Amino acid sequence: MVLIALLLAGCERNDPDIVRAEHYDSFWLWAGVTPSDALRRAQTVYLLDGERLARGDGRYEPRRPGIPRLPATDVWLVVRTDTMDWPAGAVDDLSVRADRWAKGGSRMVGVQLDFDARIRHLDHYAAFLANVRKRLPRRYRLSITGLMDWSANGDPKALAALAGTLDEVVIQTYQGRSTIPGYERYFDRLRGFPIAFKVGLVEGGQWIEPAGLAANPKFKGYVVFLTAKR
């Protein structure tokens, strides 16, 4: 049994379809996850700063202790949210937090909102993001995470509205620690996607690049979601 386990582990290490952090240079890092060695050569990192959730009455809940200092890496401040009912001044507070990171020594690029908007709510989400963009200083770019479903099947008008507001969308191809089965068929319908996008992969998940993805002019690379080691 021990021999079988070792053989299986060896197969997993050598499986070219497994997402390994050391093969990439852009990462999401959530609070509570120990940074991997791959972060030492990261070109871009998306760092969760806090959450604004409906169950907390929309109050901002910081999740990252201290201020990061990453002078040689492009840094995005990430806010996880499940509500578009943000109180007055919330975006202003967000820019203040980004400014603190910049003053603390990080090379700030922008702000990313991690929100699972459903297809039927894309028009409302576009209006919400337009207001965020209006309030967010132009020195910061605006990014969001996106679901494969609406990224491929969303209303063209709503997507066009998003294209006029956002700098990028990072499309999530996973749920939990696993890659969503059948992801290839979603990317078949992304050829006319109007927004610059990256593809979010989960560390340890399986991934085979769909045909034609690299040739898509809107495709800007990968971001790997780092996971806590079990």
Describe this structure in words.
By secondary structure, this protein is α/β, with parallel strands linked by helices. It has a single domain (20-225), classed as TIM Barrel, CATH 3.20.20.80. Helix content is 27%, strand content 27%. It contains six helices and eleven strands. An eight-stranded parallel barrel has the order 1-2-4-5-6-7-10-11. The protein has a two-stranded antiparallel ribbon with strand order 8-9. Helix 3 runs parallel beside helix 5.
Write the layout of secondary structure elements.
Blueprint: H1 2-14, E1 26-29, E2 44-52, E3 60-62, E4 74-81, H2 90-103, E5 107-114, H3 122-135, E6 141-147, H4 148-153, H5 156-163, E7 168-172, E8 174-175, E9 178-179, H6 183-188, E10 197-202, E11 219-225
Parallel strand pairs: 1-2, 1-11, 2-4, 4-5, 5-6, 6-7, 7-10, 10-11
Antiparallel strand pairs: 2-3, 8-9
Helix pairs in contact: 3-5
What are the key terms here?
single chain; 230 residues; alpha/beta; two-stranded antiparallel ribbon; 6 helices; 11 strands; globular; disordered N terminus
Largest sheet, spatial ordering of strands: 1-2-4-5-6-7-10-11
Gyration radius over CA: 18 Å
Mean pLDDT: 89
What spatial form do the alpha-carbon principal axes imply?
globular
> In terms of per-residue confidence, which ranges show pLDDT below 50 for 5 or more consecutive residues?
1-13
Distance between the termini: 21 Å
Beta content? 25-35%
Q: Any idea of the CATH class?
A: Alpha Beta
Number of domains: 1
* CATH fold group: TIM Barrel
Number of strands: 11
